[in-house]
Amino acid sequence: MSQYSGPLVLDVLYFAALTPKGQAERLAYVTEFIEEAKASGLVKQAIERAGLRGVQVAPPGNPK
Prior knowledge:
Helix content is 58%, strand content 0%. By secondary structure, the chain is mostly helical. The chain is elongated. 11% of the residues are buried.
C-alpha cells in the first residue's frame, strides 16, 4: 500500500461512496482497498497530510 499517495486514498474513499447499487464486485474491491489502507496506516497519513483536524480513521471492518 505504500505506493499510493494521500490524494489517491481520499479519491478512492470518495468514489466508494458513489458506488451504485448492483455493483457488488466493484464495492468488494473498494472495500478491500479501504480496509488495507486503514490497516497499513495509509488513511491516517492521508488525513494528516491533508491537514484535516478532528478526523479519525474508522476501526477495521466498520462500514459506517
